[in-house]
Amino acid sequence: MNVFGLANADAVLPGVKAGDPAAQEALYRAFEGPVFNLARRICRTTEDAEDVLQETFLEVFRSIGNYRGDGSLWGWVRTIASSKALMRLRRNKYRETDELQDDVTPLRREDTALRMDLEAALERLNGTSRAVVWLHDVEGYTHEEIATMMNKTVSFSKSQLARAHTRLRRWLGEEVPA
Amino acid sequence: MTHLTIEQLLALREPGLEPGVQGWRDHAEACELCRAELDRLDQRVARIRALPTLQPSRNRFADVQAQYRRGRTRRRLLALSLGGLALAASVALAVVLGPRLGAGPVAAQLSEQQELDDIIARSRQLETVIEDYNPDRRVTDGRTAVVAASLEDRLAQVDRQLQLVNLMEQRGRPEEALRLWRERVGLLGALVDVHTTGATYVRY
Asked: B139 vs A24: CB contact, 8 Å cut-off?
């Protein structure tokens, strides 16, 4: 994460509000990495994540007048990015196949050969579960905030997180035979 | 003894104290298996947080900026109140043609007025098509965005000229208004093509 850029992004705020292209580019450079990373962790493909990146900054530049400064600028941009990524996820949902429904299957000896790395395991989660894991465990959103963003209940967010961790635990070979 | 479920383990990591959480916490402290499970959960979350930051494969800033500029141009165009422009053109033409009706061929002058009305109607239709398509809400590739931006810049110039001509109509230049409205319709048609087909080479 471009910590230097994030820390100094507020300095270019007046220019961005005035529509100054140089200030817009400075803000883009500061937040490009974290916005793309968040989008890519939620979306299935790089192309979708790049579209979310573009949509996010377009929205940021258009709506920067609405940013009142009562929270961090990154927090505001991140909320827009999360919302755009979740919107993309919903739009693509009909195309998405759910992950293998193997959470009810007991661990078999040959399953140890399927042990995968963390990146692959996250990719294997369905879009909604992956989004909840990322927003909750990495970005630090509460279940209440995630529920609001997803237009779902708090219970839904909690159960998605629990399902996701159950699966990750299995796929990562972390289960301890009873 | 029943061990903690994944839901209960996750609840232990949440801030605040939900009902029952203290009991689960007491259990986790006493139960080696649950404590180990909680440690694994903490480690898994720490590993997820430590994943490398992914970077975009290409620079999208030019696309963002082109789309932003296009949006601003469109908003400016709307602010110009195109309906007002059209009305002004019609009124101006009527003012110019009115005194001439007795002097020249009436049919030709009425035809000129009719053509202007038709072109203005066509211009409105095309604007509606673009508004319905709502390009601001769509992601476009860089080349399409650049072509669309240049068409919209040209459109803005034509509208500025139209405003001037509308003022000058009082002194009698209806043919200039017709020419500009024709050009406006051509530009809007090209813009529709660019948006709906992604055409990056347009003639109008």
From this structure: no
pLDDT tens-digit map of B144-188: 777 777 788 788 788 777 777 776 655 556 778 888 888 888 888
pLDDT-flagged residues of chain A (< 70): 1-7, 93-116, 176-178
Question: What does the block give as tokens for B96?
Answer: 């110019």
Question: A-chain residues within 8 Å CB-CB of B45?
Answer: 137
DSSP B58: S
What would the two tokens of residue A54 be?
A: 């573009």
Tokens of A10: 């507020």
If one counts the domains in chain B, the total is 2
- Residues 6+ positions from A102 with CB-CB distance below 8 Å: A170
Mutual orientation of helices A154-171 and B32-49 as an angle, nearest 10°? 100
Q: What is the DSSP letter of A134?
A: I
pTM over 0.90: no
**Residue B140's pLDDT band (cuts 50, 70, 90):** low
CATH of domain A3-95: 1.10.1740.10
| DSSP H helices in A43-142 | 46-63, 73-92, 118-124, 127-133
H/E element holding A135?
A: none
Confidence of residue B102 (pLDDT cuts 50, 70, 90): low
Domain contains B115: yes
* Helix or strand holding residue B131 (H, E): helix B106-133
Distance from CA of A37 to the nearest CA of B (A): 5
Q: Is A95 helix (H, G, I), strand (E, B) or coil?
A: helix
Which residues in chain A touch residue B64, judged by CB atoms under 8 angstroms apart?
24, 28, 54, 57-58, 61
Same domain, B66 and B45: no
User: Is residue B116 a part of any domain in this protein?
Assistant: yes
B95 and B11 in a single domain? The answer is: no
State how far the Cα of B93 lies from the Cα of B67, in Å rounded to an integer: 36
State whether residue B26 is helix, strand or coil.
helix
ipTM score: 0.84
Q: Indicate the domain borders of chain A.
A: 3-95, 109-171
Enumerate the residues of chain B whose CB falls inside 8 A of the CB of residue A118: 44, 47-48, 51
What distance in Å separates residue B200's CA from the closest CA in chain A?
20
Average pLDDT taken over every residue of chain A? 84
